[in-house]
Amino acid sequence: ISVTDLVEESYNRIEEVDEEVQAFITLNKEAAKKQAAELDQERGNDDAKLFGLPIGVKDNIVTKGLRTTAGSQILSNLDDPLYDATVVNKLNDAKSVTIGKLNMDEFAMGSSNENSSYAAARNPWNTDYVPGGSSGGSAAAVAAGEVPYSLGSDTGGSIRQPAAYCGVVGLKPTYGRVSRFGLIAFASSLDQIGPITRSVEDNAFLLETIAGHDKMDSTSANVEVPKYTESLTGDVKGMKIGVPKEYLSEGVSEEVKEAVKAALKEYEKMGATWEEVSLPHSKYALSTYYLISSSEASANLARFDGVRYGKRAEDAKNMLDMFMRSRAEGFGDEVKRRIMLGTFALSSGYYDAYYKKAQQVRTLIKNDFEKVFEDYDVIIGPTTPTPAFKVGDKVDDPMTMYANDILTIPVNLAGVPGISIPCGFSGDGLPIGLQIIGKHFDEGTVYRAAHAFE
Ligand code: GLN
After folding, report:
1. Is this complex's ipTM strictly greater than 0.95?
2. Residues in the active site (predicted)?
């Protein structure tokens, strides 16, 4: 098969299903076809790692010359970005073909894709249901067979939760493992880019390509990138698994509990052992996360003022009016809610009570994980309390929407890696996700555990 055929097949599939699935915001058709023809010329004398493979990129990752909106109207006119994100440079060096930019909740704030200002992407298993978010387009595109690989970003679950809902494999790497240069920031101390794929092997392969130190991102870690594909031995004999009791408590549906317990039985059969452990500060994770992430978002989003970045409102009376109208018109409701919450939490007089307190609790949450990892190799539990919910079900209730990320958020606060892999189906035929969490920079063991189960 030629690269041209492969790329053609991707666009044909998009043509077929994307009117319904709405996974893409922008397609890169002309440039991708041209690149495919060029790659076909070089074929045979090039061993680039992702040679000719079609990939989709979440729309908060900057792509030179290709529209990048972050799901927001305020960036709807960013048609011609001036540079590529570091991960995109790495994809280009590996000679993959960027098929298009994937749908997402605006500025990655959301759990259902319904906060996209373009269209709400749908779950390919049943389009009455949400694909999850915020990387809903990234997970849906892979699940629907539009692209074999995609990139998402995860601040509080935005790779793992949609991967779980769409029955695909999604990894949030250790904080600092992958460069954030060129990722439009939501919450800088939590954001990580990661791969979404159909198999664990593909996932490990893609992480090898995008990971590594980058001098353009001061928080990227100078830690060598192992060959993750070499850890896929199939052997988990003697592996010690911790199962947090907080992850199988009320709020988690019976079907999800059953699926996770069945997975643990499989691990036992393969020679691993598991025991109940505790992450006692998990109950504070949601409030801690919403304080920290909204505070950071309020600062990060200050640059969208119609001058430095963002679409400028027309007919403004004066400069202040221009700033205010550009932001009022350009941002959606959820983004405004977070900016207000974050601005409040950071204001003088409240800083100690909210932001500082949240940072202290964050340390306790991180310590919980480190304590468990003194005795266990991985932590396993569900990715989400329930399978995907129906479109429209939670859209008017931000608190229940937020609660959906209760099992993924602690992982971001601790900075450790976590993967979601499929582990069965609900009675309604919707996928259920198994979450495997590892030690800092130990994606290798996470992949080994995931691959053995798959
Ligand atoms: N759903 C969470 C939020 O809305 C997480 C989003 C994310 O990981 N980007 O903040």
Report:
1. yes
2. 58 (charge relay system), 134 (charge relay system), 158 (acyl-ester intermediate)
